[in-house]
Structure formats: structure tokens, C-alpha cells
Amino acid sequence: MNKLVKRSLTVGGGILALQFLRKALTFKPNPRYEPWERKPYREFENKILVLGGGFSGYTAAKSLCKMTEDRDDVAVMVVSRENYFTFWPMLAGVISSDIETKNVAQPLRRSLIELGASFRRADVKEIDFEEKLVTAVDEGVKSVQIPFDHLIMTLGGEPAYFGIPGVEEHAISMKSINTAEEIRNRVIERYEEHTISRGEVPASKLTFVIIGGGATGVETASELHSLVHQALAPDYPNIEPHRVRIILVDRNEQILKELDPALRRTARKKLADLQVEVMNNVGAREITGDKVVLDNGHVIECENVIWTAGARASVSLERFEGLPYDERKGLEVDPYCRVKGFDNVWGIGDCAANIDSKGNPIPPNAQAAVQGGKVVARNVLAAIDGKELKTFDYRPLGQLVEMGSQFAVNEVMGVKFSGFIAALFWRVTYLFKTESPQNRARIAADWLMDLFFHPSVTQIRGRER
Ligand SMILES: Cc1cc2nc3c(=O)[nH]c(=O)nc-3n(C[C@H](O)[C@H](O)[C@H](O)COP(=O)(O)OP(=O)(O)OC[C@H]3O[C@@H](n4cnc5c(N)ncnc54)[C@H](O)[C@@H]3O)c2cc1C
Questions:
Q1: Torsions phi, psi of 155, nearest 5?
Q2: What is the spatial distance between Cα 283 and Cα 296, in angstroms, rounded to a whole number?
Q3: 381: CA distance to ligand 1 center in Å?
Q4: Is the pLDDT of residue 325 over 50?
Q5: Are 394 and 371 in contact (CB under 8 A)?
Q6: pLDDT tens across 97-118, in order?
Q7: The pLDDT of residue 334
Q8: What own/partner pairs with CB < 8 Å and gap ≥ 24 does 270-274 have?
Q9: CATH fold of the domain at 167-309
């Protein structure tokens, strides 16, 4: 009998230990609600509606859910045009096929549901501030009205063209997740034309002009170089990669004006090594289908222009009457991220002109969007609970610029470094910041594979039957 009890205890203990191990390996925090326990968003006492699910909107929703885990009076809903958010800092990597497009898209729906928030994929069309109602439309067909007690505006930004003729019609601008693929496909199209016409194509078809010498412009030029000289070289042995001219045009005295001067020089030297031509102190006056006219009168014969030279607040904001809004800077907000003239409307990220407690402007970048998301979540809850609000005092952590897979120029908390170690740092940092574990694993696997194989470049084309 004693033996039987001992054996049963051993088997039972073994099963429990295995269960414990399985749980430890597949650990996930308990969801705020099980789906069947959830009451509808509309029935909560305090409804917080987040418009836009990018860096700032997602962070605000995530922080709110974490801070209200034990509360039953607060509901969070996110409305965004897509069911993913674009991890912009990695987008340039898609040009050279270093990163797959789908891995730059961070899925929103599942992570928000698991956090305890609700999600609607829809385009925000109208806001009735009196009635506290937002009207959103999905693909122009289904319309939904969503009530709110607090509204967080995080609609992001878009390229600014400064009224320069021809930019919108003729240039590719880095404004959506498809753009990087569009640039890659443009190179493939030009190469195919070159191959079919046995090399008799004008030089303008193989000239790529990137306008804007900030981080996005420099990364785009470097990735184009990798695409031409590494990824596509084995596919088109008949095309001498140096026939492709890559020109970076920048209005400032030096490229990467936000970086330390020594790092700017390092980046400039690296571009020279890559044979990227850099033109400073000059801007574009006009872009046509086959040339770029610069404001010093110089003309570049070119049929491929990429625009990375300016940004402004989302045009969606123009739809909403009664908001204090400046087209270039965005929503006018106080240092607590509250939209001027409102108690319950908040603005953060690229759509808002955020300022710190001293009135200094906060730059529109991903770090500020994430930090702002946390601040606004805290302040909305403080407003609900009648507590004191905190100012948004932005702490810049640094700037990382990748120039191909093996080189970067970084400035992190005052420490400046460049080269291969900097490129590794860039990769580890952004991998760590990627929200989706699946995307993180796939990107890491892609980078690992690239050590052994050339990335393969494919162009998926629709076909009319
Ligand atoms: C190509 C590129 C590279 C960049 N690289 C870097 C970098 O390396 N480091 C860095 O710090 N910053 C970088 N940035 C800037 C950074 O990505 C932005 O500052 C940041 O994304 C701002 O966050 P956000 O939440 O305000 O906007 P976003 O992240 O753009 O999110 C806005 C969201 O609102 C949604 N939306 C807009 N209008 C509507 C509407 N009417 N209805 C519903 N939803 C709507 C959009 O679909 C989107 O999901 C880069 C930007 C670009 C374009």
C-alpha cells in the first residue's frame, strides 16, 4: 500500500512538474478579460478612444491597458486605417531585400485584444466634439459611430512637398509600407528594360536621385546601393552595377544635420566609398518625368526620383472642424499633451506640435512618439481620477543611422560610434523594439540567412487574364 501511494505521488508529481514546465515555457500574462467576460466598450464608465494605431497610438493604448488592469471603469479602443502599424525605422531595409515587407508590418489586432483593448480597422472621417462621437468608415462602405469620454489623436504625419512642381506626380515618397517595395521594383523594371533592349537605354533610366539628406535619405541611398551591387548583381551579370548612378541632393550644408559633425563626416566618407554622389546646399525646383531641375539651375537627367525631404502633420486632421491646427506643425497642444481649448482631447506623435515644460518643441520621431504615448496614458487616467497632470519632458536617447547591413553611424546618450559594431547595435536595438515576437524571430532569421546566402529578389506582379 505504502509503495502504491509513493508511486502515485511520484507520477502525480511528475505530471505537475511537466505542466509547470510547459506553462513556464509558453508563459503569457493573463489577459485583462477572457473574450466571454468582456462587456462592450460602450458600457464602460470611461471610454478612451485612440485615433491611429502607430508608434504613439499603440503605446498609449498598451500603457492604458497595463495601468488599468485592475479597474472595471475604463475601456480602451483603437481605430486605425490598417490592422498593422508600420515599423518605419526598418522600412529602408526592404529596398535591398534585407527585410521582408510583411515583417515591417507589426500586427495590431491580436496584441491589442490580448492587452484588453478593442480595435476597429477604419478611416476616421468625422468628430463631433459636442456629442463626443467619432464616425469612422471601413473601405468607404461600412460606417460606425464610436462614443468617447477622452479622445487621443495620434494620426501621424506624411511627406511635405512645399509646393514644388512635379514631386507628387513623378517622385516616389516614403509614405507607406509599399513604397520601399516600389523602389525595389523600379530598379528591377529598369534592369529588365536594359536587358531586353540589349543595353540601349538612356542613362536617365539608370539614374536615381534621392532628395533629402536626413536619416531616411541616407538609409535609402545606402540600401539602393546594396540592392544594385549585392542583391541584384548575380541576377543581372550583363549589367555593370556602376552604370547605376545614385545621387543624394540635400538643401543643407551637410547631410544628417541632426548628427554630431564627426559622424556626419564619417557618413559622408562612407557614401563616397559607395560612390553615392552627394550634392549639398541645393534643393529641387521642379521634377518632371525625365529630369530634376535644381534651384541653382543645374539639371539632372533622371527618370527615378525618391522624395524624403520633408514631413508634415496628417492631412486627415483637415477633416475635423474646431481643432487648433497648423498644417505644417500639427495640433496645438500644451505640455501635458492636451489639445488647446479642450479638457478631453489629447494629441501626440507626428500629428501634434508637442512641447516640453519649457515650451521647447519635441521632434517628430519614433522615440518621442513612444515616450509621448506613455505620458498621455498617464495624464488621461490622472484627468479621469482628478489627479495632477505631468508635463511631457522628452529624453532623447540618441540617433541610429544604418548604411547597408555592415555599417552604421550611431550617437547613443552622447557616445558616438560607427562601423560594423554600430551596425550590430542598430540591428539588436531595433529587433528589441519590434513589438511582434513573430516578426522579431523572422527578421533575426533573415539576417542570419543573409550571412550564408545572397538575398533573393522577386517582384510580385498582378496579371490581367
Ligand atoms: C521612412 C521613415 C523612416 C523613419 N525612420 C525613423 C527612425 O529611424 N527613427 C525614428 O525615431 N523615427 C523614424 N521615423 C519617424 C517615426 O516613424 C515617426 O515619428 C513615428 O512613426 C510617429 O508615430 P505616430 O504614432 O505619430 O505616427 P505613425 O506611426 O505614422 O502612426 C499613425 C497611424 O495613424 C493612422 N491613421 C492616419 N490617418 C488615419 C485616419 N484618418 N483614420 C484612421 N487611422 C489613421 C495610420 O494608418 C497610422 O497607423 C521614420 C519615418 C519614416 C516615414
A1: -85, 5
A2: 8
A3: 24
A4: yes
A5: yes
A6: 999 999 999 999 999 999 999 9
A7: 97
A8: 270/222, 270/403, 270/407, 270/409, 271/218, 271/221, 271/222, 271/403, 274/221, 274/222, 274/225, 274/229, 274/246, 274/403, 274/404
A9: FAD/NAD(P)-binding domain (3.50.50)
Residues 228-252 pLDDT 10s: 999 999 999 999 999 999 999 999 9
Q: Is the pLDDT of residue 358 over 90?
A: yes
- Top-level class of domain 35-159+312-385: alpha beta
Average pLDDT in the 145-157 region? 98
311 within 8 A of 295, measured Cβ to Cβ: no
Does residue 361 register a pLDDT over 70? yes
Taking CB atoms and a 6 Å cutoff, what residues make up the pocket around ligand 1?
A: 52-57, 79-82, 85, 88-89, 91, 123-124, 154-156, 174, 215-216, 314, 316, 349-351, 364-367, 369
First to last CA, the chain: 78
- Going by alpha carbons, the residue nearest to atom 7 of ligand 1 is 89
Query: Domain segments of the chain: what residues?
Result: 35-159+312-385, 167-309, 398-451
- The reply to whether 35-159+312-385 and 167-309 are identical in fold is yes
Q: Considering only CA atoms, which residue is closest to atom 30 of ligand 1? A: 156
Q: How far apart are CA 177 and CA 415, in angstroms?
A: 32
* CA dist., res. 65 & res. 41, Å (int): 13
